[in-house]
Amino acid sequence: MAQQIIILVSSVLAIVAAFIGSGAFFGTPIQEAAGGFLNSDSTLIAPGTGAFRIWSVIYTGMLAYAIWQALPAQRNDARQARIGWWVAASLILNAIWIGVVQADLLWLSLPVIAALLAVLCRIFVILRRTTPKNKVEIVVTDGAIGLYLGWVIIATAANATAILVATGFDGFGIAPEFWSSLVLGVAAIIGIALAFWGGGRIAPALSLSWGVAWVAVARFTDEPYSPATGVAAIVAVVLIVVATVVARIRHDRTHRARARASAAAR
């Protein structure tokens, strides 16, 4: 019961922090905090402003999850018990990240978001190794957390790049487009790995592809203008989507084959 309450409180804390980070009522918008290095035109890897709309979907999903897991039916659920404290940690780390950026501590934001990514990866591993009991759980647990994970992958890359730019990193004299393409290539590799290891789960691929696609939008329509980075982002999205579709087809075929074999054994 304590775990359920803490998750619910943590989700509310994360949403309150998000309001502060949006600058809607008070606080500084994230794009303007920390010297503006997290703005959409700060680095080649920064997604366009429209990309951040996904946070409203993620927060809605995580609030729905927090409410659902707090219901009496989930009180003794072993799967929820295994991920519960990790989920609470992710929401708290999210709020801490916003607080750190609001305090203009850009250098501290990277270890915080890296910790958040590690926690979400741990949750993903647990979810992959356990079975949801129904379709509702698939949506509110696997779906919400999957979206969260996919977005934080590209957000971590953008955060790290912002810090490098803020510190004056010149890329050892190598063209910036080389480094941006390399980072996007790594994001694509992670997306492909998630697709095949996760059995073609749609949620993480969807949010990761969304973030990378908005990198392409920003590089073609905003400063710093970089068609090469935009093309690299588009290629990364295509690779992630194709890998996810292929992995999903393979997963479904394997599942059906096992079901037939199990039925035949009876």
UniProtKB/TrEMBL annotation:
InterPro entries noted in UniProt: TspO/MBR-related_sf (IPR038330), TspO_MBR (IPR004307)
Entries under Pfam families matching the protein: TspO_MBR
Domain of life of the native organism: Bacteria
Transmembrane intervals: 7-30, 50-71, 83-100, 106-125, 145-166, 178-197, 202-221, 227-249
Bilayer disposition of the protein: Multi-pass membrane protein
Chief location of this protein within or outside the cell: membrane
Localization, UniProt: Membrane
Entry keyword annotation includes Membrane: yes
UniProt keyword list: Membrane, Transmembrane, Transmembrane helix
Claim: Hydrolase is one of the keywords in the record: no
Gene Ontology terms: cellular component: membrane
Family label: Belongs to the TspO/BZRP family.
Protein name as it appears in the record: Membrane protein
Source species of the chain: Microbacterium aurantiacum
